[in-house]
């Protein structure tokens, strides 16, 4: 599915990838992820998208963002939006889809193969648009959770589906590297659905 001569770009929906990996019981080693895909062709860019809370400076997500930023990823963030639903419950929204789509379309003429790390069905139209430009489109997510983390229409539209569980041995972080966190920090991290670096 990969040609060593092709230019590759990775587009990572941070929250979606974290949720999929967590559902499969492992953490992503982002250094290994770059290395694995760098061996498949010429890795031109790796983008990581996430929304940040206003108080993010004190969050467990900040070390990951800083590490990615210094280690080969182009990190794209925006503030989380807080709102109240009709029953008065506080909700948080941090959708990064439009940023990811714009960046992918802008980079399309410089790459041969786009790899999306997300199972969000909203990206089906992106896959279709990139394929019309003659680009290969692969998606990394999982069918091994109940329900599956990948939308069926996105999987069908993609040129290649890569099962995240099959990558675990290559891009999973060694459990011994996991830092035990105090309960308060673990709750904060789960609220933001991201790991620490």
TrEMBL record:
Entry superkingdom: Bacteria
One example GO MF annotation: RNA nuclease activity
Compositional bias (Basic and acidic residues): 174-197
Positions of the UniProt region annotated as Disordered: 170-197
NYN domain sequence ranges: 7-164
Transmembrane stretches, start-end: none
CDD domains in the record: PIN_LabA (cd10911)
InterPro entries from the UniProt entry: LabA, NYN
Pfam families found in the cross-reference section: NYN
PANTHER family: SLR0755 PROTEIN
Entry protein name: NYN domain-containing protein
UniProt organism field: Acuticoccus sediminis
């Amino acid at each position: 599915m990969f040609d060593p001569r092709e230019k590759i770009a990775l587009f990572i929906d941070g929250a979606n990838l974290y949720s999929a990996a967590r559902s499969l019981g492992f953490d992503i080693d982002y250094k290994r992820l770059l290395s694995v895909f760098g061996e498949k062709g010429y890795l031109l860019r790796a983008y990581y998208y996430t929304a940040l809370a206003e108080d993010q400076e004190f969050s467990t997500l900040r070390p990951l963002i800083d590490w990615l930023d210094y280690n080969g990823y182009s990190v794209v963030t925006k503030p989380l939006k807080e709102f109240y639903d009709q029953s008065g419950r506080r909700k948080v929204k941090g959708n990064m889809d439009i940023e990811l789509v714009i960046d992918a379309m802008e980079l399309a003429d410089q790459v041969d193969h786009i790899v999306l790390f997300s199972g969000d069905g909203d990206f089906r139209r992106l896959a279709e648009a990139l394929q019309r430009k003659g680009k290969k489109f692969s998606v990394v997510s999982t069918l091994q959770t109940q329900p599956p983390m990948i939308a069926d229409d996105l999987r069908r539209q993609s040129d290649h589906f890569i099962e995240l569980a099959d990558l675990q041995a290559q891009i999973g972080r060694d459990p011994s590297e996991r830092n035990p966190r105090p309960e308060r920090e673990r709750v904060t991290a789960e609220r933001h659905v991201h790991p620490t670096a």
